[in-house]
Specification:
This protein is mainly beta. The chain is 8% helix and 45% strand.
């Protein structure tokens, strides 16, 4: 039994001597029905049993194991700016460049970026998944840059189908439950049919400290050898912001040294640091962080408390956030689906489809930090030693910044409640020899995000500025104490917020297809159509999240009042496009000597966008079959992606960015002290700095002002895709070889004018780096990403969406299927492997970096193993089958530490099924299995994404057992 199709060309089902009429079908990637379902592009077909064999709770967990996908957001995506989405990324080019269809039509996006949320598709509802890699914009329009993933749901079913599944990890946690009912019947004496599905799913939360590899956050130090992890080079280190808090105090270094001499430290032995903390006895201790944010061996000085039993204080005094952070997100989902058809006449059929999903995905993170709150010098909790340092500042009377973890408020929790409704109605049929279809579709996706654990800085400062330290308000707030504040104070500073997000999509399409004229090799077929789509996005932030605090001159600029989860700005926008398209398939040769078939495909699409303007997409493909058992296929496609609503309309909002001191315009910076001093100074002035500030300018803080936002001037992305493949089906009749199928496909994709945001720190660094800006030209592209405030000379960064550069990837896909009778049963084999030969990013300055074989950079979905794949073996006899699957992820290099090699991972899954074909239990199928049988742990690496690893790529929960049953009658 072969469960996963390979997208291969079949072995001459329509041979010249055959008189059997084959049913014409439409495969994903084309709109033209053909009898042989030949695909000119690399294609993967995943059957429903593939999801059942992986104890799949959400569909992306199964699909991401196939090598065509680079795992992105999923069940372990818990970053603060995530909202619980589950997405797919073909070829690692991102979810926005991967078009997702349901039954050949678009699924409404889950956000303003156009990302489709796969949480709304329960695996039990899926019949097959067809994946076409490579650009497909000429057929489907914008977003199909990396390819198309088409989920075919059950639309034609008679009877009742019950399904249920349970799974749990070897640790006794992470339980998942699925239950579903499908029912279908014919109506009106067979003139119509209707099928309906109702399902419920639930997934339990697992915390990071529940696994040894993620028990505490790890930091990598190449000079360490006695730590933990590979080569002993990792230390258990958390976040610098702790629950006892610290003040940012730039005291005179001499006074700093004198204070620590009084504690018994030799002069100069404690590295100068601006982050001051207090022991219970009022003395000051350092947390091991210097002015530039670097952790220093031996930098923790005079700490007199009890050390954390998990964390290492060898380099820094930190906070362990793992016990408060989810490793697997909890999720609860209800899904409904109805599809119906009714034959009005032999030539006309009505159809409709309704899809509903209601689910909640929750994120849980460590308590919020008051990173930009202020404390006045009059605060009663300032001890004499701390006051000594405060008096040694340039402005002794100024308030100072407080950074404190507000553990008493509790963890940050965001419950994302989503409701999706998508309805489709249409008519199709035939007029003479032409087929037609007209349909309209409406979708609405609502999300309500309930946030808790946020903190209001104005309330914190109300307590810190109170003469009694907030004693009369709520019982007192000590900024530097580990002791929990009172429940009244926690309630006083805590904020509960609710954001409302709505995505709506209207679309309609009319298409025709048929035979245009006859050629010597067969009829020329054509498909043409008109398509219109209108998208609307609306984000309404809780008013409390949009409030700001005024700046304090010389201390801090304007800042958001609420900290915790990122505060999104209110925004709304819409985009519409109207497309016309045409596609043709021309048979050039048929059953000639040395040419069993030669077929040319052509396609063109013109789209007019309200904002992005007019764009063109086209394709040309060729399928050549020298003999009926072998085929060569190749294609070229020009694909496009119009900017999303978020990218176009996200308003510019005030923000702060990390820039490692010193500023290049600082007189003591390496740039001002180097051989290009005069050119550096001229560049500073050209950026807006007053020449009078050159001699005195200084900005020791690691934060600069700026804005983030979208850009209505964005141009569409354009991509060129080339594929070339060989497809073999066995020419042999011998039972051992008759079923052998093999495909080998090369692909190359380049995306130009890729949309993204360039970070402020890199922009400043490259602007003043002669390797990137040899003439110190203020017009250098990196220099245009920021400017300077004339009055102060400070950097003002503009981190907005831009057409930045290009992406390029190339590789080779191998797919194989084979089955043979062996003993009393049948042995089946399926293999899927991909080799990524390049994955390059060209930055705005023209520099190209190849990320093939790398992982890291703390970027979600940024892992590109050179080899990835899976091999399935099955043996079935009678009503039973045993199967095993090997999943392989090649070794990788850390992108920030190229000498660090992340070892390969091998995962083994096993399972068994038994089907009842007779008796009272006829139609019942029982299944049991174990995923990750050998309990392989994920690797840890330096620039990990989260939980010390990449949880979207590797199995983070370990061995999992599952039981499942389906019963159809």
């Amino acid at each position: 039994m072969i469960i996963c199709g390979l997208g291969l060309l079949p072995a001459a089902a329509g041979a010249q001597e055959s008189t059997v009429a084959l049913e014409e079908i439409v495969v994903t990637g084309t709109r033209i029905a053909r009898a042989d379902a030949a695909s000119p592009s690399p294609t993967l077909v995943v059957e429903s049993t593939a999801f059942a064999e992986r104890a799949a709770f959400t569909v992306e967990s199964t699909l991401n194991a196939f090598p065509q996908f680079t795992p992105a957001a999923g069940s372990a995506s818990v970053s603060p700016d995530s909202d619980g989405l589950a997405t797919l990324s073909l070829r690692g080019l991102g979810p926005t460049r991967t078009l997702v269809l349901v039954n050949g039509r678009r699924l409404i996006p889950g956000d303003g970026l156009g990302q489709v949320d796969l949480n709304v598709l329960p695996p039990q509802l899926i019949e097959t998944v067809e994946v076409v890699t490579g650009g497909a914009s000429a057929v489907y329009g914008s977003d199909a840059v990396a390819g198309v993933v088409n989920f075919r749901l059950r639309e034609d079913f008679t009877g009742v189908h019950l399904a249920g599944q349970w799974s749990q990890t070897d640790h006794g946690d992470g339980q998942e439950y699925n239950a579903g009912l499908t029912a279908g019947t014919d109506v009106a004496d067979g003139a119509g049919s209707i099928v309906a599905y109702l399902g419920y799913s639930e997934r339990d939360q697992v915390m990071q400290d529940a696994r040894a590899f993620s028990r505490a956050p790890l930091s990598y130090y190449p000079d360490e050898t006695t730590g933990v992890g590979p080569q002993g080079r990792f230390l258990a280190m958390g976040d610098a912001v702790t629950d006892d808090g610290f003040g940012v105090v730039f005291a005179e270094p001499a006074v700093f040294d004198h204070l620590f001499e009084s504690y018994g430290y030799p002069a100069g032995s404690v590295p100068y640091q601006p982050l001051m903390r207090l022991n219970d006895d009022g003395t000051v201790f350092t947390g091991g962080l210097t002015a530039v944010g670097t952790e220093v061996p031996g930098g923790v000085a005079n700490y007199r408390g009890e050390p954390d039993p998990v964390l290492s204080y060898r380099r820094a005094y930190t906070y362990d956030f793992a016990p408060h952070t989810a490793l697997q997100l909890p999720l609860e989902r209800i899904t409904g689906f109805v599809a119906g058809r009714y034959q009005l006449s032999d030539a006309t059929e009505l159809f409709g489809q309704l899809h509903y999903a209601d689910y909640t995905a929750s994120r849980r993170l460590a308590p919020a930090v008051t990173s930009i709150a202020l404390v006045p010098v009059t605060n009663p909790h300032i001890t004499p030693d701390l006051r000594l340092l405060l008096d040694a500042r340039a402005n002794p009377a100024a308030p100072f910044r407080l950074q404190k973890r507000t553990t008493a408020v509790g963890p940050r929790i965001a419950d994302n409640d989503r409701q999706l409704l998508q309805a489709t109605v249409g008519v199709n049929g035939r007029v003479h020899d032409w087929s037609y279809e007209v349909y309209a579709q409406f979708g609405r996706n609502e999300r309500t995000e309930q946030q808790s654990g946020n903190v209001r800085l104005s309330r914190v400062e109300e307590l810190t500025f109170a003469a009694d330290g907030g004693l009369a308000i709520c019982g007192g707030f000590d900024p530097f104490s580990k002791a929990p504040i009172s429940a009244a104070c926690a309630d006083h500073i805590a904020v509960v917020a609710s954001n409302e997000v709505t995505v709506e999509q209207w679309l309609g399409e009319a298409s025709i297809s048929g035979e245009l004229f006859d050629l010597p090799a067969g009829p020329a077929r054509i498909a043409a159509g008109l398509f219109h789509k209108h998208d609307e996005f609306d984000y309404r932030a809780d008013p409390v999240l949009t409030e700001s605090l005024p700046g304090v001159p010389g201390v801090i600029g304007p800042r958001p009042d609420v900290v915790g989860f990122p505060a999104g700005a209110d925004r709304a926008g819409s985009e519409s496009n109207t497309d016309v398209y045409v596609e043709a398939v021309l048979p050039l040769l048929r059953w000639r000597p040395g040419a069993a078939a030669l077929e040319l495909g052509l396609g063109y699409r013109r789209a007019e966008y309200d904002q992005a303007g007019g764009v063109d997409a086209w394709k040309a493909d060729l399928v050549f079959r020298p003999v009926e058992s072998a085929a060569l296929r190749g294609s070229y496609q020009r694909a496009v992606r119009a900017p999303s609503i978020e990218e176009l309309f996200y308003p510019e909002i005030n923000d702060e960015f990390f820039i490692r001191p010193p500023d290049p315009c600082d007189p003591n910076s390496p740039e001002r002290q180097g051989p290009d001093q005069s050119q550096v100074e001229a560049l500073c002035v050209a950026q807006g700095m007053s020449p009078e500030l050159l001699a005195t300018y200084e900005n020791p803080l690691a934060r600069v002002k700026g804005v983030t936002g979208g850009n209505p001037e964005l141009e569409p992305e354009q991509a060129d895709t080339y594929t070339l493949g060989l497809v073999l089906t066995s020419p042999f009749s011998h039972a051992a070889l008759a079923t052998l199928q093999l495909s080998l496909d090369w692909y190359w994709i380049e995306v130009d004018d890729a949309v993204g945001r360039w970070d402020a720190e890199s922009a400043v660094g490259r602007c003043f780096d002669p390797n990137y800006n040899p003439t110190y030209d203020p017009g250098n592209v990196f220099c245009t990403f920021f400017e300077r405030i004339p009055e102060t000379g400070e950097i003002f960064a503009r981190v907005i969406d831009r057409n930045l550069g290009s992406l390029e990837t190339a590789g080779l896909d191998l797919q194989l299927a084979w089955a043979v009778e062996a003993g009393p049963g049948r042995l089946t084999t399926e293999a899927y492997f991909t080799h990524v030969s390049r994955w390059r990013l060209r930055d705005p300055g023209g520099t190209t970096l190849d990320y093939a074989g790398t992982i890291g950079g703390q970027v979600l979905g940024h892992a590109f193993p050179e080899w990835k794949g899976q091999l399935r073996l099955g043996y079935g006899w009678g009503p039973a089958e045993l199967y095993a699957r090997w999943r392989y992820v090649d070794h990788l290099r850390d992108v920030e530490y190229p000498a660090f090699v992340v070892p390969h991972r091998d995962y083994l899954d096993v399972g068994a099924t038994h089907s009842f074909d007779t008796g009272l239990l006829k139609g019942l199928v029982l299944r049991a299995g174990i995923d990750n049988l050998l309990d392989e742990e994920p690797p840890v690496y330096p620039s990990y994404q989260q939980a010390n690893t990449e949880p979207s790529l590797y199995d983070v929960l370990g061995r999992r057992y599952y039981l499942a049953a389906t019963w159809q009658f």
